[in-house]
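Lab notebook, bench 4. Still working through the backlog of constructs that have no structural model yet. Next entry is a single chain of 212 residues. Request: give me the structure tokens for it.
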Amino acid sequence: MSKSDDSSIFWNRVARRYEKMAVRNPASYEATLGHVRAHLRPEYQVLEFGCGTGSTALLLAPSVGHYIASDTSAEMIAIAREKQAQAAIENVVFHVSHMGGDSLPMEPLDAVLAFNVLHLLPERQAVIAEVFRRLRPGGLFISKTPCLGGRYRVLQPLVGALRLLGKAPKLAFLKTVSLQQEISDAGFKIIEHGDYPSRPPSRFIVAKKGIR
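Model written out:
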């Protein structure tokens, strides 16, 4: 997440409760993992930002050489490290950091992953630009993002009420088309996309870094 994003206060508070929640759509989650793994290689150096409690990182790490996972929430990362110790997966390093933070690697990465986080970022376009800079030429930006623009914007008052009660974070109601345009505008070529699930759409995007 970006430096100016103070939502870590919310996520620190709800982290333990969040960890106990079941995956809402297991079939879509498994489909997403399958699509991601198809683009990973054993030699890849990978960064995931907004990793939460690390469940996805620990499932994907065996597919790559080295996996760095970060989140701005210290409590989320504490849980992730607990899970890593239980799983005995050694090629993952968890960091408390925002995208662009000094604790994250500066060398070019093979892939950057972002799951269920882009709609939560107050400086989303700046973060996408930072992802572009961090990737080697031909590197991949793989993301999945709930897109609640269009017909699902009717949920906005409900989300606003939940925010006032401290039960929801601030989020953007994105449209799939506008999200893909932002990624393309940053210099990426989108090579795969789909919705997992389709209603409401959670947009899966694989974007490749070209030479600008």
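Notes after review: The chain is about 35% helix and 25% strand. Helices lie at 8-20, 26-37, 55-60, 74-87, 124-134, 156-164, 176-185. Flag for follow-up if needed.
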